[in-house]
Design goal:
mainly beta; lipopolysaccharide transport protein A fold; 4 domains; 26-stranded antiparallel beta barrel; 3 helices; elongated
Length: 736
């Protein structure tokens, strides 16, 4: 390489007197597309220095032209420029870089051009065959790039994609998707790219055309604008088009307004508001629609404007207190199901505040319910306010490893029509664990339950007379003791282990007979299961008390290989010395001896996992309950199946036989497929067919975009909800 110190000094002096040639030039044409904050204006500081290397450098005094030729490299503030030739025309204040022009930015962005020219005091420029691969992976190209001023860049025959080219089957590089426009404008101040007469192409094939389109620059902060639409078709609502609008209100506040246009129904408008606080969050979603028509049978019960609102907020203070709310309401019982928001049977709204500390807890809540079933009456839905729960525990490592605990619960339930109740409950327990010399593990619990009720308008059945409302107070004082015992036998081998464990539990307390004077506000129907066989109470709530003396016993055995293969079995039964007035028919606990419980877990192969539960009648030996789930993991294909059958004598669940199954396949090159169905082989209330639901989904995920197609068919008929099928398509693009 030839070195001419005089030329180098002259060029450096010119750079000091004018500007940094290459820095201004390329920042105006290349890095300006990447980020507005990288925008560099014409500079004149005496400290501006650029290191220039070339095979030859010349200065023409007569024409005042500085030129560098052969492997030109310019380094300025961590930016590196390569070109075949570089020419600076001092009189015209014009810079020209030609031949394999390449600029590398500090963030990894690399820009290319055949030629670049800068003029008008280095504030205007043109690049020929401009291409840029940005640090985000986005790709921008143009036949010609013109910088009009420091804040705007005009592109002719522009091309943009969020990712670079990939190879096709023929071996030719192509963009997965791209925007092609005759003209495009990059606004660095607003961080947006705007197109005129734009075609979107996928793998080189035109997809759709729009005369105008705009989106943020790849690394811009979130901006207000339309998101990509989705399309679907529904047999009840017709064809639909969803066009979301994203609103960026502030760095910590945003919202989405989403109208959906139907061919058979008026438009539906959805909205979501999100806000982030220093110590909390707020999220509100909702929707509404003015239906075209209302079925005659619901003309006087269905509102003229239908909609819903779901909102939740949470705040955490510095003193471990967490407070918040959840609001969930619908205009009518079937709105959420008809417009595919939710299949819930009730909505629960809540106010709460709670505090967790070591060995203590306090919670204050309020609950409100909206029933969505056809049998629900709005005036009979409860309002539970307040609900107070506090708990104190002793240190488990003191007092010989015994633990003391005190639970305090207060509840007030009111209704417009129906019983009202106020309850206070105190629960004291002492618990200690032992191990006998023979290896028996014992857990001994002693406790006292104190509760009091004050009730109003509780209906009493006095056969053969009518219902008589009851107003008054009731209470219980219930001491209890429970002893749990298990004796594990373990055999450990080199490649597997075997466990045999007899189990027993004895519980004793005074018998508390069921009375209608205490309304059942929080206790659901109970069924004997392997999970609650050894629990002190099989009820999930507190209004029903499972007193008396009872014994639960069983045995558990397991054998597992170190590779995970094997299985386990548990067999158990329950005995109690009280009448069956507390347990409904079909629960498995109607008599002194309960049904037999069996649970099997089998993993005979690495791809097969089976869990089977069965409940056998204690007298006849017939099956009264049967639940089976199985997972077949033949990766990349996974199949799930679940079957449930309950005794037809059980109230409200007579002849329940339900089967659901799904299969998911991970295909090659980003493709995934999923399908499933649900069947009801027993008593059917909302459908006349055994097939309840069928769905299928096809998903393609690329690092540059995501395409999804969904099909769903339901056969449920519930008031104005009718059997229907739905087909939908959605597309999401990277950076958009």
């Amino acid at each position: 390489m030839q070195k001419n110190h005089w030329l180098t000094y002259s060029l450096y002096a010119l750079l000091k007197a004018g500007s940094s040639i290459i820095l201004i030039f390329f920042l105006g044409l290349a890095s300006s597309v990447v980020a507005a904050e990288d925008n560099v204006h014409v500079m004149n500081p005496p400290t501006s220095q650029a290191q220039i290397d070339a095979d030859t450098m010349q200065y023409d005094r007569q024409h005042e032209v500085v030129s560098a030729k052969g492997k030109v490299q310019v380094v300025y503030q961590e930016k590196i420029l390569h070109a075949d030739t570089l020419t600076y025309y001092l009189k015209e204040d014009r810079v020209v870089a030609e031949g394999n022009v390449q600029l590398q930015e500090p963030d990894g962005t690399i820009s290319y051009a055949n030629t670049m020219e800068l003029s008008d005091k280095l504030s205007r420029g043109i690049a020929d065959h401009f291409r840029s691969k940005m640090a985000t992976g986005a790709y921008l190209a143009a036949k010609e790039a013109v910088r009009q001023d420091p804040k705007h860049l005009l592109l002719e025959d522009a091309q943009y994609s969020a990712c670079g080219p990939c190879q096709t089957k023929a071996g030719e590089p192509t963009l997965p998707w791209q925007f092609n426009a005759k003209k495009a404008n990059v606004d660095l101040e607003k961080e947006r790219i705007t197109y005129k007469n734009m075609w979107m192409k996928a793998m080189g094939m035109p997809v759709f055309f729009t005369p105008y389109f705009s989106h943020p620059t790849p690394n811009a902060q979130p901006k207000t604008g339309f998101l990509l639409p989705s399309y679907g078709s529904n047999t009840e609502l017709g064809k639909n088009l969803t066009v979301p609008l994203y609103l960026r209100v502030a760095p910590h506040i945003d919202a989405t307004i989403t109208p959906t246009f139907y061919s058979k129904e008026n438009p539906l408008l959805r909205g979501e508001y999100r806000q982030l606080f220093h110590s909390g969050t707020l999220n509100v979603t909702g929707s509404f629609i003015v239906p075209k028509t209302t079925p005659l049978e619901y003309r006087y019960t269905m509102p003229h404007v239908r909609g819903h609102i779901f909102a939740e907020g949470k705040h955490k203070s510095n003193s471990d207190w967490v407070s918040g709310f959840s609001l969930r309401r619908s205009s009518d019982p079937t709105y959420l199901k008809k417009f595919h928001f939710s299949d819930e049977i009730y909505l629960q709204s809540e106010l709460f505040t709670h505090r967790y500390q070591e060995h203590q807890f306090f919670s204050l809540r309020g609950l409100d319910f909206q029933g969505l079933r056809s049998t629900d009456v709005s005036t009979e839905m409860p309002l539970a306010l307040p609900l107070v729960h506090s708990r104190l525990e002793s240190d488990p490592f003191s007092a010989d490893d015994a633990r003391l605990a005190w639970d305090n619960r207060v509840m007030m339930v009111t209704r417009t029509d129906g019983p009202d109740a106020r309850r206070i409950l105190q629960h004291f327990t002492w618990q200690k664990s032992f191990t006998t010399p023979q290896g028996v593990l014992l857990d001994w619990t002693n406790g006292l339950r104190l509760d009091g009720y004050d009730v109003d308008t509780v209906p009493l059945n006095s056969p053969p007379g009518p219902k008589n409302p009851y107003n008054g107070s009731k209470g219980h004082a219930l001491p209890f003791t429970q002893l749990d015992a298990r004796l594990p036998f373990i055999k450990q081998g080199q490649r597997q282990y075997i466990v045999l464990e007899p189990l027993a539990s004895v519980y004793s307390s005074p018998t508390v007979h069921y009375t209608q004077k205490i309304p059942n506000q929080d206790t659901t129907l109970v069924e004997l299961t392997p999970e609650n066989l050894f629990q002190a109470s099989r009820f999930l709530g507190y209004d029903l008390i499972e007193g008396g003396t009872r014994v639960s016993y069983g045995v558990r055995s397991a054998s597992y290989h170190h590779d995970g293969y094997g299985g386990s079995i548990m067999v158990g039964q329950h005995y109690h010395k009280r009448n069956g007035d507390l347990y409904q028919r079909g629960s498995g606990m109607e008599g002194p001896l309960s049904d037999y419980l069996m649970q099997f877990h089998l993993k005979p192969l690495h791809y097969l996992d089976i869990l089977h539960r069965i409940r056998l009648d204690r007298k006849r030996g017939n099956i009264r309950g049967n639940q089976t789930t199985a997972i077949f993991n033949f990766y990349p294909i996974v199949y799930n199946i679940a079957y449930t059958a309950l005794d037809d004598e059980r109230q409200n669940t007579r002849n329940v036989k339900y089967l659901s199954n799904s299969v998911r396949a991970v295909l090659k090159k980003g493709w995934e497929a999923e399908a499933g169905s649900e069947f009801n082989f027993g008593q059917r209330q909302l459908t006349q067919k055994k097939l309840v639901k069928f769905f299928g989904k096809l998903l393609y995920t690329h690092h540059c975009y995501r395409l999804m197609a969904v099909y769903e068919q339901t056969f449920i008929r519930d008031r104005d909800v009718r059997p229907q099928s739905y087909l939908g398509f959605s597309l999401s693009l990277q950076t958009l």
